Amino acid sequence: MTLLNPAASADTALATSATPQPEAGKTSPQFLLTIACPERPGIVHAVTSFLVEHGFNINEHQQFDDSVRGKVYLRTAFSGDGAVDAGHLTEEFQGIADRFGMTYEFHDQTRMRLLVMVSKFGHCLNDLIFRWRAGTLGGDIALVVSNHEDLRPMAEAAGLPFVHIPISSDSKPEAETELLRLVDEHEIDLVVLARYMQILSNELCTALEGRAINIHHSFLPGFKGARPYHQAYARGVKLVGATAHYVTADLDEGPIIEQEVIRVDHTYHPTALSTVGQDAEALALSRAVRWHCEHRVLLDGHSTIVFR
What we know:
Layout: H1 10-17, E1 31-38, H2 43-53, E2 57-66, E3 71-79, H3 86-100, E4 103-107, E5 112-118, H4 123-134, E6 139-146, H5 152-157, E7 162-164, H6 172-185, E8 190-193, H7 202-207, E9 212-216, H8 228-234, E10 239-246, E11 256-263, H9 270-293, E12 297-300, E13 303-306
Parallel strand pairs: 5-6, 5-8, 6-7, 8-9
Antiparallel strand pairs: 1-3, 1-4, 2-3, 9-10, 10-11, 12-13
């Protein structure tokens, strides 16, 4: 397992050691293979034959045949005793991929490293930290970045480095440059916008394409802008929701990974709606992060295929 921070506290060490371990006598999957390709006969046979011929045991296989797009999506988990790495498998598989027009990727057991961005709302960060320390988040939080100081105590109590990057209209380019520097320095695989209340520039969205997830405070499309739960109350909503999606230059219109809804009624005042909404936000975001870290999300243009 990758170490998060040499100066991490005992709490952080406890968190990483709490990651669930495979039961005695059971082999944990060593690799994952994800594939997207045009629909045609022989795809599954080619994949399974390749794995069997290389001495692997298939632990889990999921596929989705999209008749509308005419494409097939697969996620296969497999294990074996041989000493081989994902790079070697990628080279060996290239011939099959060329034959079927596959977009594919092999993944090993390396856990993803996460950079969490926050502003002043702490409910999503708190939930992510809890799941990380319980070993159920799917990845490891490496550091927390914020444009405010409010959530420093929460991050540092969990043994996480906290970096304050203030932002103004004049300093935004420098702030985003610093963020990308941190992404490179800490070898970040996924940036998580956990109610980060700043709009990212088109350039930053492009730099983080496919590796940044945002949580939006509505079941999109919905109430945008300030005081969304007051808007919802004024309209007498019956459902409160949240949407976790990939970040794109089109504000709040990136490919959707997960949505959570909770039924409400006329007795919910704005504060109650906000409380319920925060629950929905935390649930949708944590699921999206875990599924991404477990390579369960396949991007296809503006859409996603999620193997749960």
